[in-house]
Design goal:
With 486 residues, this protein is of the alpha/beta class. The protein has helices at residues 19-27, 54-59, 63-78, 97-109, 122-129, 142-146, 167-177, 230-241, 247-251, 258-274, 277-300, 306-319, 322-325, 333-350, 353-358, 372-385, 393-409, 413-433, 438-462, 472-482, and strands spanning 4-8, 30-33, 49-52, 84-88, 113-116, 138-141, 159-162, 186-191, 199-204, 217-221.
Amino acid sequence: MSHITIVGLGPGAFDQLTQEALTTLSQASEVWLRTARHPVVPHLPAGPAIRSFDSLYEEARTFEEVYATIAQRLLALGERPEGVVYAVPGHPLVGESTVTQILKAAREAGIPTRVIPGLSFIEPTLTALGLDALDGLQIADALDVIGSYYPILNPDRPALIAQVYSRSVASDLKLVLMNLYPDEHQTALVDAAGTAAETVVWGPLYEIDHRDHTPLTSLYVAPLPQIGGFEHLLETVAHLRSPEGCPWDREQTHASLRETLLEETYEVLEALDREDDDALCEELGDLLLQVVMHAQIAGEEGVFQMADVIAHIDAKLKRRHPHVWGAVQVADAHEVIVNWEAIKREERENKGEARAEKSRFLLDGVPKTLPALAQAHAYSSRAARVGLDMIEIAAGVAHIQQAVGTFLQAHAAEERGVALGEALFAIVQCAGRLELDPEAVLREANTHFARRMRYVEQAARERGVPLVALDAAERLRLWRETDGSK
């Protein structure tokens, strides 16, 4: 009867081979190995014909091709009346891509399968390091980590990363891990765990590619010494909102936190304007707290959870970047913006005719609660995306001059207000054309003005009189003394 039997050979020592595995291998007439480069292979029982897929590693361009080819051949071998026995290092379901592919294909083809467990690399590695796996241990494949730009790991938990089989892999791995961990972070390279050749070398993350590696090398990454995982922040906020938490935090609602959210946003902007990295780090944390608080409140109300927030923005980013996560080709940033607007229009239409009707205009998505200057900049930027920007700076300057002229000639307050508004909006358009952020430009001007004001006030104090007590000529003289540089 056709069948596939998959046997785990353990981490490498013959005495770690299970009795069930040994019996199965002894009774087989033929055994196929994913690789013969395993310490236990020379000690396998005599009798069965031993064959391996090692030649595929030299023929194929990638490991994925090797594993797919092995799975296809095993399926064909398993369809024979005598079936097939397939042996792999460690445990068949720990880091063995071929096994998961074989099991899936066998289910679809109706071929019976049997998996005989083996000791994986995990247990002897835990022994070598003196770790408890239930203490939050994360297990990952080095190739999976290398395939990302940011490690999907919780830095508050220990991590064990397998298949760090070469210096090249270790070098790529450390570059990804350094996006989450400091260069000096404590790690351990464990090789040949559970065998007579076992070694454990502790050292900083930046040194993990300074040593030789083998197919039996794995990397242990200790937790960060301070809290750094997003999940821990979620737990902290949930605790604050719990009956055992803080009365003030429990009383907060979406509405009560509105002003705090706005305040924290402006504090982030202030840190950016000051180019103060320490302050920015702290203020971004305060802003993140607001996001987590709103998500926690929504979760308690059964509306949505943080996972929904993350899923929504992640899907939106990928949907709006088809040139990154799709087949769309773009020539420059302008084409990215054109595609972005087209995708947003389609999203609005997919949300239903009623909502699409309300949002069919380009400027409808700009929040009405934005400060006027930021709103004007957003309006101008969106108009520019569809070609409704100024042809040239000269035209914008002429528009400003015209509006200022109207303002100076106007007598009615309402007429002056309209003209001044036109001038301000034209200035915002000019800023956009020059790729300047009018909010940042005005903040810089405010800072400069405040600096001059402090100079004048200090000068008056040094004279022993209040600033308001100085005559107009003296105040003007002190102002001019600042010369724009004090």
